[in-house]
Amino acid sequence: MQSLLSAPAMMQGLHSNLRSTTLRFRAGQLIFDEGQKASRWYEVVQGTVRTCRFHMDGHRHLTGFFFSGDVFGADYGTYGTAAEAVTDVVVRCYRVGDITQDSTPKPQLDEAVSILFRAMSTAQRYLFIMGHRTATEKLAAFLLCLKQQANDDPNIFVPMSRSDIADFLGLTVHTVSRTFTDLARRGLIRINGRDSVIITDNAGLCRLAGEYQESLTAEPAADIHPAADLCLGELSAA
What is the pLDDT of residues 34-58, one digit of tens each? Predict the structure, then answer.
């Protein structure tokens, strides 16, 4: 099982071309607040971060979890959410001005684009989860996302509380607890304490979440549209 207290393989030995500052936060500590000027982007090195918004009535809407290698805070103008440490975390902090100047060298610019793509990938992950209708489907999709973060290890670390999961999925804590029990009763998972779940039937969990099973053969990629070739400059002008 991959520990979230150590950098994943894809980040080990990575030397950034961008200037960055390494920051450490304790569990529960605020990283930035909603409405604060968005002058920095953040990359998780170790631990887990959550983002959330607070309504006028004090209700909290949790919008995402971020793990090692994930990027958060790539907002324009001001932060649309607050960011908090779920566990003790280490993050890299990048100044927006350092990667948006006209004089930014190409290696730094390329890396900045990579950071943005990773931020977009995280957003797509949560669109997949929230696109499900039932509590069971949502939780199954959420667990599969955690499994992916754990390098597909079936024994996955669940650092967030049941309350956090409920807030994120738009469910009650009772429904989340009941759904965990239901997935275990079906033989899809085994609950290993409060912060660990073992996926015992990955194919069944994938079917429940509407995700493609790993055993399925991917269809060949379709040919790119000719107009896209022209856009990419890969065809000679007539």
Answer: 999 998 889 999 999 999 998 877 7
